């Protein structure tokens, strides 16, 4: 009976070790599945980031970034990404923890998402008065151009008083020429510096509003100057 008892104890011990090994194998398989899922998710996020960066670069007129531009590190990263899958644990650094590396990679991707969002927000802003609303920006540009036209009109008034410019030319430039030049200048400025780099963002130049501002401001300024000249004269 003593031999049988020893045999039964050995069987029980072996069975316990087998079950422990099965549980360990199941846990390792689950860990590998989780790692594979995490790698696949990061790969999808990186692909989406690359596509979005290409779109932003194209909108800004920049050439797309290729692996050749990044150097050997990019080739190594591409090779590691293509090898990710069932052998992710085996491909990892044996001296490191793949789960820790995956967590660090996820943190870097999150940071890249944050920086990409900031870059996209900046791309939606024009270079000229970026914090202003589109309407306020357009009004400021057209008023500034009209004010420059008013200064040119004052110079013409002085030239008219000196006999260098006749009254017909002064009237034509004040009522038509200078307002049109001011409007076209403002329209071009908004098109060059008031347009966001990102395609699809608000790029309206508010042409009707600008035409009204320039068409009304300059003749009004001319009338005010005439009244002042007559009053002071």
Helix content: over 70%
Low-confidence stretches: 70-92
Mean pLDDT score, rounded? 80
**How many distinct domains?**
2
What's the β-strand tally? Answer: 0
Q: H/E element string?
A: HHHHHHHH
Q: What composes the largest sheet?
A: none
Give a quick set of tags describing it.
233 residues; 2 domains; 8 helices
Commentary on this structure:
The protein is mainly α and 233 residues long. It folds into 2 domains: 2-123, no CATH class; 134-232, no CATH class. 79% of the residues lie in helices and 0% in strands. The chain is built from 8 helices and no strands. Helix 1 packs parallel to helix 5 (98-123), helix 6 packs antiparallel against helix 7 and helix 7 packs antiparallel against helix 8 (207-232). The longest helix has 58 residues, at 2-59. The chain starts with a helix and ends with a helix. The relative contact order is 0.09. The model is unreliable at 70-92 (pLDDT under 50).
Topology:
Blueprint: H1 2-59, H2 67-70, H3 72-83, H4 88-91, H5 98-123, H6 134-161, H7 167-193, H8 207-232
Outline:
The chain is an all-alpha fold. The chain has eight helices and no strands. Helix 6 (134-161) packs parallel to helix 8 and helix 7 packs antiparallel against helix 8.
């Amino acid at each position: 009976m003593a031999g049988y008892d020893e045999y039964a104890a050995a069987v029980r011990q072996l069975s316990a070790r087998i079950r422990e090994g099965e549980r360990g194998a199941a846990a390792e398989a689950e860990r590998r599945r989780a790692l594979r899922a995490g790698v696949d998710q990061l790969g999808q996020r990186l692909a989406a980031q690359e596509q979005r960066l290409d779109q932003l670069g194209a909108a800004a007129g920049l050439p797309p970034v290729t692996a050749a531009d990044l150097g050997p590190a990019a080739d190594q990263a591409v090779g590691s990404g293509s090898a990710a899958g069932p052998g992710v644990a085996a491909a990892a650094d044996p001296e490191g923890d793949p789960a820790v590396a995956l967590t660090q990679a996820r943190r870097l991707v999150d940071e890249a998402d944050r920086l990409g969002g900031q870059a996209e927000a900046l791309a939606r802003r024009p270079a000229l008065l970026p914090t202003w609303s589109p309407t306020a920006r357009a009004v400021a540009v057209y008023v500034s151009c009209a004010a420059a036209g008013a200064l040119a009109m004052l110079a013409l008034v002085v030239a008219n008083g000196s006999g260098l410019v006749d009254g017909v030319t002064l009237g034509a430039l004040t009522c038509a020429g200078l307002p049109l030049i001011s409007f076209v200048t403002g329209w071009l400025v908004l098109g060059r510096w008031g347009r966001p780099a990102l395609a699809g963002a608000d790029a309206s130049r508010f042409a009707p509003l600008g035409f009204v501002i320039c068409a009304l401001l300059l003749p009004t300024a001319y009338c005010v100057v005439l009244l002042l000249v007559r009053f002071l004269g």
